[in-house]
Amino acid sequence: MKLFKKILLIILIVFIAIQFIRPARNTSGQALPTDITKTINIPDKVLDVLKNSCYDCHSNNTRYPWYVNIQPFGWVLARHIKNGKENLNFSEFGTYSKRKQANKLRSVRKRVKDGTMPLPSYTFIHTDAKLSPENKKLITDWVANTKDSIDVIR
Ligand code: HEC
After folding, report:
1. Does residue 118 contact residue 130 with C-beta atoms inside 8 Å?
2. What angle do CA 60, 52, 130 make, to 5 degrees?
3. Residue ranges for the chain with pLDDT beneath 70
4. I need a surface site. Which of 93, 104, 140, 144 has the fewest CB within 10 A?
5. What is the pLDDT of residues 102-144, one digit of tens each?
6. From CA 23, how far away is CA 6, in angstroms rounded?
7. How many angstroms separate the alpha carbon of residue 9 from the centre of ligand 1?
8. Is 111 near ligand 1, meaning CB less than 6 Å away?
9. Pocket of ligand 1, candidates 87, 109, 116: which has the most ligand atoms within 8 Å of its Cβ, to mutate?
10. What span, in angstroms and rounded, lies between the C-alpha atoms of 122 and 144?
11. C-alpha triplet 93, 154, 100: angle, nearest 5°
12. 121 CA to middle of ligand 1, Å?
């Protein structure tokens, strides 16, 4: 019993200690000239869906949820954001070559179709970010209409 209490106390101390380790926030607050809206044609309806379901991990502006203040959950989110932005950043879409832009769009369609994006671990908590069949179609149709109009340099 004594040992059990000691272990609990240690866990509590570690839990409190890690609360002080907070990753930097991903909130630049400004629309860059390289933003996707300034690079390719994107209807407002599609943009709204992307903002609601993807931008937390794929842009320079995350809307932070309350649990970010509780570690280690904040760390997990920070990792997803870092990884997500490295793979696809809608705020810096204009820095990609035409070929890369077309490839990323193709990849967007694939991930939306097969349901691997947004990350299931994310929609588990952010239920409103889950894509309805209509919103999925909105995105895949937009990609189908857009990717060919990006003249890919071969
Ligand atoms: C919780 C964070 C998160 C959200 C929300 C999210 N993603 Fe991702 N996404 C990631 C991470 C992390 C990766 C990299 C790991 C991987 O590929 O699974 C990634 C990778 C991708 C890739 C692969 C890029 C490539 O180079 O092939 C695409 C495409 C993508 N996401 C699209 C989307 C779209 C579209 C949405 C919204 C409908 C979305 N993601 C929502 C975290 C997220």
Report:
1. yes
2. 125
3. 151-154
4. 144
5. 999 999 999 999 999 999 999 999 999 999 999 999 999 999 9
6. 30
7. 39
8. yes
9. 87
10. 26
11. 20
12. 12
